[in-house]
Amino acid sequence: MGTATETWPLEETDRQRRAILAAADRLLAGTPRKSSGDLSTVRLAVEAGVKYWIVAQKHTDLRDHFQHLAREAKNSPAAVRKTQDAHEKFRQDHAELRRHCVGVEELVQTYAHAINELARENQQLKDRIEGSPDNVRPLTRSRRRP
Question: How far apart are CA 37 and CA 11, in angstroms?
């Protein structure tokens, strides 16, 4: 079972019709913003922010489409719905982890570059000290004796 927008055969340009399809998607996904979340035409109208008659009488094709998807959602076993929800959550988590890993890889590359630069500078300083004349000694901190 897909979302109402995915299973709708047409690309809607009317703002009202797109709002109804988006509201149907939210209701079917169980994430309502403006209504109680019941899978009814009344709740669809509330969720879409339109009058009931707009859904019930003006856009009957969208109403019928939503009712068909709502029947499918009610008839699908709870275990299947939970599995589908869990699968979708895992897909989202996986995508988020992949984005995080890309960021970590970029940081590792930046740190590796910085470490290489510092190691090269350190080696240059050591070479400069070793190549200095014998009468020049690096200052070191000496311990004072009491």
Answer: 25
Domains held by the chain: number: 2
pTM beyond 0.85: the answer is no
Domain match, 53 and 93 both: no
Cα–Cα distance for residue pair 21/118, rounded to 1 Å: 58
Look at residue 140 and tell me if it is in a domain.
Answer: no
Question: What is the per-residue pLDDT across 61-115, written as a single tens digit (0 to 9) for each?
Answer: 988 988 888 888 777 766 566 667 778 888 899 999 999 999 999 999 999 999 9
Give DSSP secondary structure letters for 49-99: TS-HHIIIII-HHHHHHHHHHHHHHHHS-HHHHHHHHHHHHHHHHHHHHHH
Q: Is there a contact between 30 and 37 (Cβ–Cβ < 8 Å)? A: yes
Q: Which residues contact 46 (CB under 8 A, 6 or more apart)?
A: 34, 35
The reply to whether 45 and 107 lie within a common domain is no
Which domain covers residue 115, as residue numbers? 77-131
Does residue 138 form part of some domain? Answer: no
Evaluate whether 81 touches 19 at the Cβ level (below 8 Å). Answer: no
Select from 68, 2, 13, 9 the least CA-distant residue to 41: 68
82 with 89: CB under 8 angstroms? no
